[in-house]
Amino acid sequence: MIPQSKAVQRTTKRARIVIVDDHPVVRERLAEIFNRERDLAACGEAEDRHQALDVIALANPDLVIVDLTLKNSHGLELIKDIHARWPKLLVLVVSMHDESLYAERVLRAGARGYITKQEATRNILLAIRRVVAGGVYLNEKAASHVVNRLAGMRAPGSAGPAELLADRELQVFELTGYGLNTHQIAKRLNIGSKTVETYRARIREKLGLKDASELLQLAISWAHQR
């Protein structure tokens, strides 16, 4: 007779998960958590966009966990790449960024949910299982924000950077607010310094700012309010 524990292992399909995060400690912690679960298993990890695409191609996972802050790249661009190459592959964002800022953007890019790293482990596991089961996961705050945006419930004239800027523009604006210079932003996003300046010019135009000094002041103020 097969022991019950072995029978369960043989009959329960474990969802295979690739973890993409720029911090090795975070990847190791998540892998340990998943591998302790009867229905989940870590099958690969990566620290940046290009490595992630290679690992996904080799591992053939059921789900990819993506952080938005990656080494030499941004998670939002990775999500778009994944959706373009593997349209049916499930993606869940687990990040430190405020859900109200990026939740709608990651859903548009192809992800099936968003949860912050500050959430309890049980909530992260709940989010994973909901997405694997075919659902979408957002917490109440993020879901309310997305619904209000889609319903056009924002007061006239109250739109801010998160609503006015395109994905790449918002990334540049956010990093500027965190104190990164042009070269550092270019390296973080894997784009040229001239491209960063082009995005900054677009940001100033969209936000009605006169010069780089006003842009810097607004970006710092906005970033510290998140």
Q: Would you spell out the secondary-structure blueprint of this structure?
A:
Blueprint: H1 4-11, E1 15-20, H2 24-36, E2 40-46, H3 49-59, E3 63-66, E4 69-70, E5 73-74, H4 75-85, E6 90-95, H5 99-109, E7 114-116, H6 121-132, H7 140-150, H8 161-164, H9 167-177, H10 182-189, H11 193-207, H12 212-225
Parallel strand pairs: 1-2, 1-3, 3-6, 6-7
Antiparallel strand pairs: 4-5
Helix pairs in contact: 3-4, 5-7, 9-11, 9-12, 10-11
Structural class comes to alpha/beta
N- to C-terminal distance: 58 Å
Low-confidence stretches: 1-10
Provide mean pLDDT, rounded.
86
Main-sheet strand order equals 2-1-3-6-7
Radius of gyration: 19 Å
- Number of self-contained structural domains: 2
Q: What level of helicity do the residues show?
A: 55-70%
CATH superfamily of the largest domain: Response regulator
β-strand amount: 5-15%
What's the CATH class label of the largest domain?
Alpha Beta
Named at the architecture level, the CATH assignment of the largest domain is: 3-Layer(aba) Sandwich
Order of helices and strands: HEHEHEEEHEHEHHHHHHH
Number of helices: 12
Which fold does the CATH topology of the largest domain refer to? Rossmann fold
Based on Cα principal axes, name the global outline: globular
Question: What is the number of strand segments?
Answer: 7
